[in-house]
Amino acid sequence: MDFSYSYPDAAEEDVKRYERSFRKLPPAHKALLSHYPLKFQRLRRCISVNSYFIFNMVQAFEPPLDMSDDIDVCEDSLLEDAPNDHSSSVERNGCSCQSTSTSRKMCCSKPDQDYNVEDSNMTQVTRMEQQELQCDGFCGSNNESHPHALLHSKEMDRCDRNPVNDSNENVSSSPHGWLDPLLQLNVPLVDVDKVRCIIRNIVRDWAAEGQKERDQCYKPILEELDSLFPNRSRESAPACLVPGAGLGRLALEISCLGFISQGNEFSYYMMICSSFILNHTQIAGEWTIYPWIHSNLNSVSDSDQLRPVSIPDIHPASAGITEGFSMCGGDFIEVYSDPSQVGVWDAVVTCFFIDTAHNIVEYIEIISKILKEGGVWINLGPLLYHFADIYGQEDDMSIELSLEDVKRVALHFGFQLEKERTIETTYTTNPKSMMQNHYYAAFWTMRKNSTAAEKHMPS
Ligand SMILES: C[S@@+](CC[C@H](N)C(=O)[O-])C[C@H]1O[C@@H](n2cnc3c(N)ncnc32)[C@H](O)[C@@H]1O
């Protein structure tokens, strides 16, 4: 059996499945759902529009690009909107969160320097400096996997035949000419699920619909940073690292707050998407996507499911970034355990990140090392350990500490707890869904105070 798909082909398979079920209905039942064929048609148009966006995104980058070992793009979608029968092919978070690459090495720009690329296996670095946003491209790779494979020729053929409707059902001409022979590649189904997850993350970070979630998650962090560094100035801006930065909105907001902000991310999918939005956006609302089409579950109405979302909600280049903003591609552990990172950062912000660790103790140890003495670690998130349900090879590892133990370990590594509370929030949740997963996320501020920590050392 062929387990290779592309985003549009996999979505088309879903629509065909809905159609098959519809055809099996007795005529009387079919008559009650006479609007269904139109819904299927609308779904296909939405898939075309999403595919067109994805096509433009991957077109912005030059091959070759190795996405074969991409991991861990989504936290949640586990329960809500379990999309379709493909979900059985991925693990419990509804999105693949596994198989860490160990081949990646550091590729990073220090906040006060131009970026440099140090290894050909590396992902990419993007930087935004002096209000002038540029894409700095990718480093080479040695694998056949290709982002253009997110799309596939069959669907593109169909797109060329079918007009694309906008949200108001106005028919516009189809995007002829964007089919490229390069697209005639397939990707594992698990990667199609990653793409669907990314689409949900786009709403979280870059759509007006995501504002509520950003207010729940990012706002408390931004307020805390603001109050902890009251005397900062653009001339001597404090340096803040955001590991597991996802699509980069939090890192951008921190930059706009007057910090030299660096996001770190090791998913190629996330990096491609964040780079596209940060560096290639011409105007706010440039793109329309249909993020919620991939699930029929818990919909109040078809129009909720098929509603368009405009992205991005802001023009990043006009947001007011502080010089030195960068996105650093690579594994947090590999990049930041480099000796050059010791004592470099005034603040480390982790949002829905620390539970992505195989060994959370190692994350905490690195965060402590890279902070300056007196630097702060602000964290918000649950402890939904990403590798907890992975029963694979013998060498798989997942250390799943309780919150109490996390705090005890942090104390050992020189942290003093300054503030702590619980924040109720969702993560990439469809705000109109009948099912809303809420986290009671831990939010804390800890300060690195090594001398105080020595007192807590076991003798
Ligand atoms: C649950 S998402 C959170 C994203 C973002 N912070 C937010 O709040 O929307 C976790 C992110 O961490 C990234 N990630 C996981 N392990 C990582 C690692 N070892 N190094 C860098 N990034 C990692 C994932 O690719 C993913 O984008």
From TrEMBL:
Keyword Zinc-finger: no
Entry EC number(s): 2.1.1.22
Record keywords: Methyltransferase, S-adenosyl-L-methionine, Transferase
GO terms for biological process, alphabetical: methylation
Keyword Repeat: no
InterPro entries reported for this sequence: CARME (IPR012901), SAM-dependent_MTases_sf (IPR029063)
GO molecular function: carnosine N-methyltransferase activity
Enzyme class, broadest EC rank: transferase
Any Pfam family hit: CARME
Family the UniProt entry places it in: Belongs to the carnosine N-methyltransferase family.
Protein name, as recorded: carnosine N-methyltransferase
Naturally occurring in which organism (per UniProt): Quillaja saponaria (Soap bark tree)
